[in-house]
Specification:
With about 500 residues, this protein is mainly alpha-helical. Helix 14 packs antiparallel against helix 15. It is flat, with a radius of gyration of 30 Å. The relative contact order is 0.09. Keywords: Membrane, Transmembrane, Transmembrane helix. It comes from Suipraeoptans intestinalis.
């Protein structure tokens, strides 16, 4: 019985199979390079992010199918996360979220591929971390593979292939030569044709052509080397090596010293911060001053505690006393996180809400949830803390990005200060994101100076001008909404255009 193509492939290494079937793998990589250029060349963030995510999912699925790797269970969650991140990028103008969304999409895609290529039994957290480094290293070592495989494909011994490509190249050159002779005559023979060709040539730019070629090659290179590195990665076998753990006495004694200090600190937090007892505070310090200080220090210590519990529970032999001490450190960390959050809330009451303050509050919630998973790991060794952490960070980040915190901060500021000070208006003008810029169109500017009016008018004029010619790739919900509001504002206040006071450069 004749072997199928996949059965023959399984007798080879996947990297050799990629070289042999270069027409498919190279063609799919080239297709990705073309799509990448089509979506992102000279384009702002918009629905192109969603199209890009869908393209890498589809192309990756075809490549997996060609190599005979079946789709495993529980992989759709990675793909769903990628699509949601792509949608998030099309709903915001924040560069922070755009960069984070892109990083998140790539990380989820790599996790998806690691889950596909690795042995099912090798699923520990170190496997995924190792997978990231192995893939990056293999991509670097495979830098020249796309080009060596291309050369090998076109310089093969197949006579028919040589004849086909040689004939195609001769045909293209012959067509260009004939066109160079007859085109001048065609241009002179018809004025409409000549005008149309002239208009088309205005859009031909050599530098743009070079950039487009390099963009396509970049996409081709990344796609081919990434999948080649995965195929090399799939040849790694075996479970993680068993490591001898350290003496638990070391962990117990070190945590005992730390635990005593932490218990004292927690007692002070409960007494002076949460209960609000002012007696015993340093001389000259009020409760408000005490409560609003120390946030960043607590955030740092809480983060250190997270890694402390992870490392101690992993590298020291299991012991009941050690587990109790680790749980104690975890409990103290929860109190510190709560203390840091309370301090930040008090700080926000006085100095209002900003994106950074919203971000750190979000980070505290994520830190507490991760700490909860690590605490469970102390008593349940088989708890998948890495996958749990990935899920927590992904879900919480998606909720944070879809909430558009820049807009929340702007609305909060306006709600708290019915009559904004000039410095508050300029704070809103200087934000890099357009999320929440619509709030500025709703303010009453009669009480402000002509300088403020002119700067606001110029701010919205820049928004309108820079987004005048947007193509379908850059369609973005928040940008479109802001531009519409900006144009309406400019029409309503067109008399501000004649103001002459100095203005800021935005």
């Amino acid at each position: 019985m004749r072997k199928t193509e996949i059965e023959e492939m399984m007798e080879q290494t996947r990297t050799e199979y990629m070289k042999e079937k270069f027409a498919f793998f190279g063609g799919m990589s080239l297709l990705y390079g073309l799509l990448y250029t089509l979506f992102f060349y000279q384009s702002k963030m918009g629905i192109n992010n969603i199209l890009w995510v869908l393209s890498i999912i589809v192309i990756g699925s075809f490549l997996l199918k060609k190599t005979g790797i079946p789709k495993k269970k529980r992989t759709n969650i990675y793909l769903a996360g990628m699509i949601l991140l792509g949608i998030s990028s099309a709903l915001t103008t924040s560069m922070f979220f755009y960069v984070c969304n892109t990083i998140g999409i790539l990380c989820l895609y790599i996790l998806f591929m690691i889950h596909q290529f690795y042995d099912k039994k090798v699923g520990g957290s170190l496997t995924y971390v190792k997978g990231f480094f192995v893939i990056a290293g293999n991509m670097f070592l495979s830098t020249f593979k796309p080009y060596s495989h291309t050369i090998a494909y076109f310089s093969g011994n197949t006579t028919a292939r040589k004849k086909k490509w040689t004939a195609g190249l001769i045909g293209v050159l012959l067509g260009i030569g004939i066109l160079a002779v007859i085109l001048p005559f065609l241009l002179n023979s018809d004025a409409v044709f000549s005008q149309m060709v002239g208009r088309l040539l205005k859009y031909v730019n050599i530098w743009d052509g070079i950039q487009i070629v390099f963009s396509v090659l970049f996409g081709f290179h990344i796609c081919y080397t990434f999948f080649f590195s995965l195929c090399k990665n799939s040849e790694i076998r075996g479970k993680e090596a068993h490591r001898k753990k350290g003496n638990p006495v070391i962990g117990i004694t070190s945590l005992t010293v730390i635990g005593i200090i932490y218990l004292l600190y927690v007692a002070i937090q409960i007494t002076y911060l949460f209960l609000g007892i002012e007696k015993g505070l340093p001389q000259g310090m009020t409760y408000a001053q005490y409560a609003r200080g120390g946030f960043w220090e607590l955030l740092f210590v809480s983060t250190v505690n997270l890694f402390l519990v992870i490392i101690w529970s992993r590298f020291f032999e299991k012991h009941k006393v050690l587990s109790v001490l680790l749980a104690l450190i975890s409990g103290c960390t929860f109190v510190m996180i709560l203390s840091a959050g309370y301090r930040m809330l008090l700080y926000i009451q006085v100095y209002h809400l900003t994106f950074l303050r919203l971000f750190v509050m979000w980070f505290l919630v994520v830190l507490a949830l991760i700490m909860g998973g690590v605490t469970i790991k102390i008593f349940r060794e088989k708890f998948p803390v890495f996958l749990y952490t990935t899920a927590v960070v992904s879900v919480c980040y998606l909720l944070f990005s879809f909430s558009r915190p820049d807009e929340i901060a702007a609305k909060y500021l306006v709600a708290q200060e019915k009559q904004l000070k000039e410095e508050d208006v300029y704070y809103l003008l200087r934000r890099p994101s357009l999320d929440g810029a619509e709030v500025l169109t709703q303010l009453d500017y009669e009480r402000y100076s002509d300088r403020v009016k002119m700067d606001v008018f110029r701010y919205f004029s820049n928004i309108s001008e820079k987004n005048k010619e947007m193509d379908i790739r850059s369609t973005n919900y928040m940008r479109n909404r802001t531009v519409k509001a900006a144009n309406a504002f400019l029409e309503e206040h067109r008399d501000w255009k004649n103001l002459t006071e100095p203005y800021l450069d935005f």
